[in-house]
Design a protein that fits this description.
25 strands, Polyamine Oxidase, Chain A, domain 2, 3 domains, alpha+beta, five-stranded antiparallel beta sheet, FAD/NAD(P)-binding domain, globular, five-stranded parallel beta sheet, 499 residues, 16 helices
């Protein structure tokens, strides 16, 4: 069919490019969609047996009202403009629902030195615990309260090693600044013993910008993850994947594991595993969207030293999610209507999923969500051992889980050990703004006809927004690319076996 028949915009100079996209995650799907809109020919090769990448919605049975759990991306900050635009463009605006996050329900639990305490009653113990690390009389009571709640959020979300490394920065830098402000307008609750941290930083953004890069990145991420303006998609986040795939005309082929890439002057050779053989494919243009954690294990030739360095230097953190299919949403009888608890221990966060289908089908509980070293500790266990450990530990907070027949099924995903991701997200915590931008530019820089996208190539790592941002940028670069004739001297070429 012609471009006119498909309603796409033709290439301005009459040059139609043939683009091979490696990876069928959000970045690859968005790039394919946008490239086809501009009149280019696209094919997608996906190594695994499913599309969607780190959007992974699991349904506990095949019925239309099956309880579901997001083993991958589960929320969208409404400030992520590109993502929200795609939600609308894909006809999913009517599926947008509020995502209730950590501590949003005061009947949920928070772990303190005294054990599991209702959020509404946690302030006293949180401040007592926090005061143990502070010099006497140095800060106001409100500043201590602020620090206690922010520490509780950080303890729930951040990996253990990063939490420990930031404690001095937090005490010595941030609290000194906070102590200069009147915090009374941001106190909440009947006893005014909770602090609206998000409202404070919204009114005083200069406080974050005055801190070092490590602390800024930390605050940005934990405030995004616990903000009041988070949304989800009723019916599953994988609707984004399905709608995108349905709008792409070119082939999307699963089971096409790329094992090598050779960037040449006028083409890119891609080595693809086919059973016991490795087949070489000559491609006009290639857009690589797979994580650098995976790309680094491939045989790469023809790439610059700097590109190889940034691929191998990129840092990824693990994430492990463990979910239960429960007979009923027992937490509602405990007064919890949603949101999440900080359960501490090796489990960290527990999310209470809304029941949207037939209540007779049961309810989904995200029993444990961990990242970093905490995720690795769970992820290294066999699945049945992991599930049993989570059940026993979480039953200390929710003994209902041990009632006969309460847990019908269990599922988990350890992204750090997942062959197709080797990590949940690229992270730049610990780096200042300039260092982050330098890394982004190095990651996105094309190698002749080999281009790069994915959340690791964005300014918004670890979010769908970053995948879309990077895809749109790469599409622009490919669309306006002009052939290059410079061939690097002495760069080794990829040798492939043909079957």
């Amino acid at each position: 069919m012609s471009n006119v028949q498909h309603g796409v915009t033709g290439v301005a100079d009459g040059t139609t490019k043939k683009v091979t996209i490696i990876g069928a995650g959000v970045a690859g799907l968005v790039a394919a969609y946008e490239l086809e809109k501009r009149g280019h020919l696209v094919e997608i090769m996906e190594g695994s047996n499913r599309i969607g990448g780190r959007i992974y919605t699991h349904r506990f049975h095949s019925g239309p009202d099956a309880p579901l759990i997001e083993l991958g991306a589960m929320r969208i900050p409404v400030k992520h403009r590109r993502t929200m635009q795609y939600v609308t463009k894909l006809g999913l605006a009517d599926k947008v629902r509020t995502f209730n996050t950590l501590f949003s329900d005061t009947d949920s639990y928070c772990t303190t030195s005294a054990g599991h305490t209702r959020v509404r009653d946690a302030a006293k113990m949180l401040t007592t615990d926090f005061l143990r690390s502070l010099p006497d009389g140095r800060y106001s009571d409100d500043t201590i309260l602020f620090g206690a709640w922010l520490t509780a959020i950080g303890d729930a979300i951040a990996p253990s090693d990063f939490r420990d490394s930031l404690r001095d920065d937090f005490r010595l830098e941030l609290l000194e600044l906070i102590n200069q402000f009147d915090l009374s307008p941001f106190l909440r609750g009947d006893n005014r013993d909770r602090v609206d941290i998000h409202a404070f930083f919204a009114v005083h953004p200069e406080v974050r910008m005055s801190n070092n890069g490590r602390l800024n990145r930390f605050l940005d991420d934990i405030l995004s993850e616990t903000g009041p303006d988070l949304v989800r998609l009723g019916g599953g986040m994988d609707q984004i994947v399905r709608r995108l795939a349905g709008r792409i005309r070119g082939p999307i082929s699963c089971g096409q594991e790329v094992v090598g890439i050779d960037s040449c002057d006028d083409h890119v050779t891609v080595a693809v595993r086919d059973g016991d053989h490795i087949l070489a494919r000559r491609c006009d243009y290639v857009l690589c969207t797979i994580p650098f954690s995976v790309l680094g294990r491939l045989r790469l030739t023809g790439l610059s030293e700097d590109k190889m360095a940034v691929i191998h230097d990129a840092k990824y953190w693990s994430a492990t999610k463990v979910a239960f299919h429960c007979r009923e949403p027992f937490w509602e009888s405990d007064g919890i209507s949603g949101g999440a608890s900080f359960c501490g221990g090796s489990l960290r966060q527990t999310y209470y999923c809304p029941v949207e289908g037939d209540p007779a089908g049961g309810a989904a509980l995200l029993a444990s969500y961990t990242i970093g070293a905490d995720a690795d500790a769970l992820g290294c266990l066999p699945a049945n051992v992991r599930h049993a450990l989570v059940l026993q530990e979480l039953s200390k907070m929710h003994p209902e889980l041990l009632h006969p027949g309460m847990v019908l099924d269990a599922v988990s995903l350890t992204w750090g050990q997942h062959w197709w991701s080797e990590g949940a997200a690229c992270v730049r915590w610990g780096k200042d703004t300039r260092a982050c931008e330098r890394e982004r530019r190095r990651a996105t820089s094309p190698e002749r006809r080999l281009f790069f996208a994915g959340e690791h190539c964005s300014s918004t790592t670890a979010w769908i927004e970053g995948a879309i941002e990077s895809a749109v940028r790469a599409v622009h670069e490919i669309h306006f690319d002009q052939p290059r004739r410079l061939v690097p001297v002495g760069v080794p070429r990829l040798e492939v076996m043909t079957g």
